Fold these 3 entries.
Entry 1:
Amino acid sequence: MAKPIEWTSARLRGTRELAPDIRLFEIEPDSPQPAATPGSHIDVLVAVDGRSQRRSYSLLGSCADGLYRIAVKRLPSGRGGSVGMWRLKAGDPLTISAPRNSFALSYGRPDYLLLAGGIGITPIYTMALALKQAGANFRLLYAARSRRGLALADELARHIGERLQLVVGEEGHMPYTRPPLSKDLLTTSAASVADHLLPAQVDATWLLGERATGIDREARRLKLAGGEQLAYERLVIATGCRARPWAGPGAELAGLYLIRHAEDALALRAALADRPRVAILGAGFIGCEVASSARELGLDVSLFDIAPTPMPALGALLGDRCAVLHRAHGVELHLGVGIADDRASALGRERSAQLLADPVGEAVHDPVEREGPRTVHERCVAGDVDGRAR
């Protein structure tokens, strides 16, 4: 039979924001209370719809200074407890229980792996500090939907250092192999990004859907697009290349596609389902692969490049062989033609081409279109990032 809760009076010493929707509460009991152990929680009576209701919150830290610290995530659509807590102000009286522990930390193990997600970090935070003090061998993997959800990441980094590992990525899913973006993901309607995700071989907390925008080297902080900052001891920058969208005439038109991320490939696949004529500017690796995929789907494809052969990085001999293969499979090659070249305009008029894609990962608009009606009948896709566009 559960032991009855022994209530005691307390006062809210103060609050501070850990995140836009997470608030830290410092509670001072009116009388001495039992010591809290890692994993402990307290119960708090909260006003909800005019009635006192019990809510349980894990304690943060050792409470050695006599203050109880809890973190409350505000959930407007919840049962009202978090909203009631957020209405409290410094000095307000509270009714709380003594610390109780239903999630006790077991000492003496050779290794520990601590897992926490979002606001669920609160009991794990205290355990991590206790294990650090005990000299235990442990790691903490801390996950959330965004950097904002990692409210205690900076404090944990200060206290436990490299035992906390974080990875920031702009895309909202785990890393994946990119070659299928211009192959299988375009030609197979049932293919999904999940088919090509790489296994998580790095023990780290993955911050997906976050974009890094700057570095403060003196303060050792990584700046994120949302305004948050992430403390670090050592920083590895592995950003790869970035697609540069066409910003010239015709950039506002629909039907221009570039390929860099999985979502780009899925959008292009949906457009190809309408069976448009496809014009590709850039006969590098990606441009040739997309041309091959579009022909596999039975689409008319024109491939343009300022180089004399496709795949110029492979040299003239292999480039000539590549050209033979593409022509044999029905791809129309227009080589030695740049976007600003009069020959590109002439070829565009002959084939009613309205859109091209350039080899810098940019979707570009053929000069012919500027002179004609501003409609789009063809699709264009991106080629390779090699900087050869004129």
Note: Residues 341-390 have pLDDT under 50 and may be disordered.
Entry 2:
Amino acid sequence: MSAVLSMLAVVVGVGVASADDSPPKRDESATNLAYMRLGAGNGIHTRQGIGGGPLLGAGYRAEVRDWGVDIGASLTIPSSERNVAFTNARFALQGMRFMTPRQVNSIYYGGGPAVGVGGGIGVDATGVIGYEFARDTPLRMFAQLDAVLPLRAYEPIDSASPDGYMAYFGMSFGVAYRANSRFL
């Protein structure tokens, strides 16, 4: 009988150990986040080449399980007078999908429409891929890559700037605060 109890204890002990080794899970309820991000943005113009500068962004994100909606704005500021044509501001609405939504860290991707101001005002198609850290805390961090393809021709800002087509790419790091929780 004691041999059976010993074997049962070993089986139960292994089961408990394997349950403790599983990665941490996060709450699956809806999450609202306000965020700010900072990085670098670059434009690639068909005739002027590559230019860009610092990228600043802010927005709001709502997440439910593995889906999210992001409403945000970003501004790329030229790093020199030569790059004035690469100034770009954007207001975007993006759908997002988290690859491992129940985990503390997750890769995400998505895209959607945007209104771009830079080389004229018009509609843009946006895409994003990123990695979010510490999803189980009120203060999260993320790193993301953005791609923007304007669905319009570039309009020169003066007679010296050639017309053409310009796509934008950005890399940024951000901090998000979970608005529906208490910080302390």
Note: The domain at 27-178 is CATH 2.40.160.20 (Porin).
Entry 3:
Amino acid sequence: MVRQKSAVLIMATYTNPTLSPVELPWKPLLYIDDQAAIFTCTGSPEGVIVANTGSKAYSDNGLEYRKTTDGVNTGWVAQLDQSGAGAALIQNPTTNAIPYNDGALPFGDSPLWRSSATEVILGSGLSSATPPAQVRLTGTAGLGTDIATGDVTIAPPVATGAAVPGIIDTQLPLIRATGSTVQSLSSARPRPWLRQMSQWSNQVTIVSSTAETLFLAANPDFGNANRDIEAGFFRVGRRFKGYAKGTMGDTGTPTGRLRLYLGPTGTLLIADTGAITLVTIGGGCTWYAEFDFTVLTLGATGTIRLHRNSFDYGASNGGARVYFDSVPATVANVDSTGVNRIVWTWTWSASSASNTLTCEEFELSMSP
């Protein structure tokens, strides 16, 4: 039974001891004057521990129970569960400490926290009506005038050394026939593409030059400095897609040449259109280029597989699409142990103020 004390809190000198078969399957941890108590126990306290409303029991099964009745050993309810069977509390991954959490948050929400070794579910439990809002995962909010906030980073668990780490994927609810059957999650796990870097504010123009010239900004608006793919991002089967677009103009029928490089300093040629004979496009038109490759092997002499990549310009101006067919589809000696810099260049055959190419946008994305 709950022992009554006069305005005194007594902390036990033990926490979750090993119990012999002749001992009771519970121990008092903290007594609170005339009303509630906190216990540790083995299994469910229901039908075992006599306590008053508001008492708590933390079980070795990982569940938290709360008392809803006075003076009897029934009325223990497992907390924070969507099915009524109870839910494990979230543990600190470093100390394995179980936090005290009765489901009440400062903003008045009562979320469901269901946890196991592989699963955490956030929400407000089962509802017979459409929930009023989505579950939101966010960071610390700003307070005051024009207070900026940090980003929220979602990261899969890390591996060690050269082992293949986990990735981020999704499971989608499967729509069923009309009825009350709860939808199951897909066995397929679609994986979102991830934006690696983007350039949109820093435009680069090549004009009055016959030199091979980089048309990407020195540093993207988003992404690593110098357009570097970070060391360790290459993994077998990972795919990278990039595109660039802008405007161009010429006089006469000059040629232009588009080349794409990788490598620690961006000197390994992986794609080349060769000389493209252009039509006269006068005042200008739009152009668009794209590349696409998949990592085949890793290491200092790794390989990638180029897919069909292209450059096209102003069909309305008599332009055309040209494919990167001047290098083999499989490229060797791509060093995945260090950074790989994206270098994309254009070369005019004739120098003229009318021969101009401007890159207005660039983006690189990759599969998980």
Note: Confidence is low (pLDDT under 50) at residues 1-23, 80-116.
